[in-house]
Each structure stands twice: as C-alpha cells, then as structure tokens.
Amino acid sequence: MKLGTLLLVGAMLALSACSTPYGKMGLMGGVEAMPVSNDTVRISAVGNGYTSQGQIQDFVLLKAAETAIARGQTSFTLLGGQDTSSQSYGQTPGTLRMNNFGGTTFATYNPGFTYNVIKPGQDVLVRVWSPAPGEQLPPNTFNAQEIYTNISPRVQRTKS
C-alpha cells in the first residue's frame, strides 16, 4: 500500500472512532426507546458531527428490534418519524505571521474559515407486535430477529 493510502485509511479510522457509539443517550448522542402506549414506543437517536445518517438509521432499527425482542414480540412496524438533525457553524481563527528578511518586515495573513457541523438525528414511532401465522404484514414491518442479526455486528457499542 502506498503511504498516502495508508494515511487516508488511518485518518478515516481515527475519525470513525469519534462517531457516536450505540448506547444510552449522553453528551456524544445515543439512542433510547420511550413507551408511548402498550405496543408503541418512540425511538430517539442523535449523533455527533462525526456520525453519519446511516449510522443513526441503524441505531433506530437496532433499538426497535431489541425492544421487540425484549417484549417477547417478533416484529415491529415503523409508523412514522421525523428528522431531528441539527446544523451548527464554527469558525477557525485567522493567523498573522511576521517575517523579517534582510531588514524588511513582511506580514502574511491567512484568514480563518467557516465550517458547518451536521448532527444527524431521528425520532421514530414504532409498533412492536407479533403477527398471527399467515397474517398480511403492513408496509414498513420488519422481523425483529433478522434486523438484530444483520445490524448488530456493524454497530459500535459503548464500553460498559
């Protein structure tokens, strides 16, 4: 591998280590399920500026699957949701450098730059339930165990 490729891969790994881990809601974000009714929960997931929208979607689906399984149900249906992402801006300071060359002073100014930070988030209403054998499933219904099996291995979890 070339040095440039190694540096790029290393930088990507370092940044991914900063993304929000799957776990309780905290300063870096997280995910939680709150009961709304006997068979409905609201799942909220929030990430930090290093977390992708795809990771937040995985958090919501995984939490829905875990909630269904914990309640002894086999399925969950996504009833609706809303994007709760937020955006903020930052500014780096400019720099002024003075150099003296042969008795003449030169000033070099590099202005700072403005950057934006997007923190992805989702609030989703989920019905957890077990369909009867042969029952027609409504749209947006998932098998909880399949979702858990497929998403759980790729989700970074908080250290206990």
Identify the notable features of this structure and list them briefly:
alpha+beta; 3 helices; Lipoprotein
Task: Summarize the helices and strands and which ones pair or pack.
Blueprint: H1 3-16, E1 30-35, E2 40-46, H2 53-70, E3 75-83, E4 86-91, E5 95-101, E6 104-110, E7 114-119, E8 121-129, E9 141-143, H3 144-151
Antiparallel strand pairs: 1-2, 2-8, 3-8, 3-9, 4-7, 5-6
Helix pairs in contact: 2-3
Describe this structure in words.
This protein is α+β, with helices and mostly antiparallel strands. It has one domain. Helices cover 25% and strands 38% of the residues. The strands form three sheets. The chain has a five-stranded antiparallel beta sheet with strand order 1-2-8-3-9. β1 and β2 form a beta hairpin. α2 crosses α3. The radius of gyration is 23 Å and the shape is rod-shaped. This is Lipoprotein.
